[in-house]
Amino acid sequence: MGSISLRQVEKTYGAGARTFKAIHGVDAEIADGEFIVIVGPSGCGKSTLLRMVAGLEDISGGEIDIGGRVVNRLEPAQRDIAMVFQNYALYPHMTVYDNMAYGLKIAKVSKDEIERRVQKAAKILELGTLLQRRPRELSGGQRQRVAMGRAIVRQPAVFLFDEPLSNLDAKLRAQTRLEIQKLHRELGVTSLFVTHDQVEAMTLGQRLIVMNAGRIEQIGTPEDVYGRPASTFVAGFIGSPPMNLMPGQAVGGRFELGGTAIALPAAAPRDGALTLGVRPEHAVLGEGGWPLKVEMLEMLGAERLVYGRVGEAAFTLRIDGTLVPPAVGDTVSLLVEGRHLHWFDAASGKRVG
Ligand code: ATP
């Protein structure tokens, strides 16, 4: 059983006057078999949280359970987890087979059982023909698969991945992403996967834990965090280009933002200082809408990005690449359906509607 509970988990680094609180009372419940991605910008505490689950870092406060067992004081080897690192950490002088078998030999697993598990992992990962090679005779992607093979053969209750794809080029990263998804479908092992890459997070995670400055901003499915971001932070972090965030004043069905007032298709949840969010693909060109002064265009192939301003607020519009685009310097009119308006409190950044 590989469920994981985090209850008021805290981490403080250092001692005395030079302490730094990297994790502030984090709570999360992860079900057995779930694939969870922990995502957030550099320094937000993702690796620290993962390393605390792994037992590689002390827990300063709170409790971590794995499979219903409090693991706070257990050594990594006693936690029934296997970790895949960014730098693979393979033994250079050992063959692929021995790299995968090593942990099992140490754990005194029988030779027959080792043979069975390594061959099975090699088959899943398509490493069968490479078992006698050494790491230096492998490509980056193959080394990454060996690192995963070494985790699989241990048959742990939980896989922990710390940015395992960051050393691969873009094409290989996309391919390995698919392999990890397939692996999870076949084995169904609870997985915690850390990344700063929101595309990786959206494509791999059944649920995402979005972190910022040592706190959880939102836990939800990719659809939740994209469709109903809990804060301006999540709205700006998930999605590329990010959601347009326009600070202004809501007054009786109109929204004033730096010299321009726009009429709203659906009223704001309340009047006052709010931030209005609109995804770039949710505004369309049409008569009688918001004025967008076009400043720059970018052709991406299937689509085109139109950068400009509504009042003083920067606004990015995503349009079909085959449409004739507006010209730089033009002012065009934007229509947005009411269901595509996101409202956030101006001071706290929290979602209010
Ligand atoms: P990245 O994506 O850059 O790896 P991260 O989100 O994984 O970032 P962590 O490595 O968990 O971030 O670090 C969280 C915070 O804790 C950072 O501000 C970091 O500087 C700090 N930190 C990490 N390790 C230590 C340490 N041993 N001593 C003091 N501070 C640390």
How would you describe this structure to a colleague?
It comes from Rubrivivax gelatinosus (strain NBRC 100245 / IL144). GO terms for molecular function: ABC-type transporter activity; ATP binding; ATP hydrolysis activity. Keywords: ATP-binding, Cell inner membrane, Cell membrane, Membrane, Nucleotide-binding, Sugar transport, Translocase, Transport. This is sn-glycerol-3-phosphate ABC transporter ATP binding protein UgpC. It holds the Pfam family ABC_tran. This protein has 353 residues and is α+β, with helices and mostly antiparallel strands. It folds into 2 domains: 230 residues, Rossmann fold (3-Layer(aba) Sandwich), CATH 3.40.50.300; 105 residues, Beta Barrel (OB fold (Dihydrolipoamide Acetyltransferase, E2P)). It is 24% helix and 36% strand. The strands form 4 sheets. The chain has a 6-stranded mixed beta sheet, with helices on both faces. The longest helix is centred in the middle third of the chain and has 18 residues. The radius of gyration is 24 Å and the shape is elongated. 35% of the residues are buried. The structure holds adenosine-5'-triphosphate. The site of adenosine-5'-triphosphate has 13 residues, from strand 2 and helix 1.
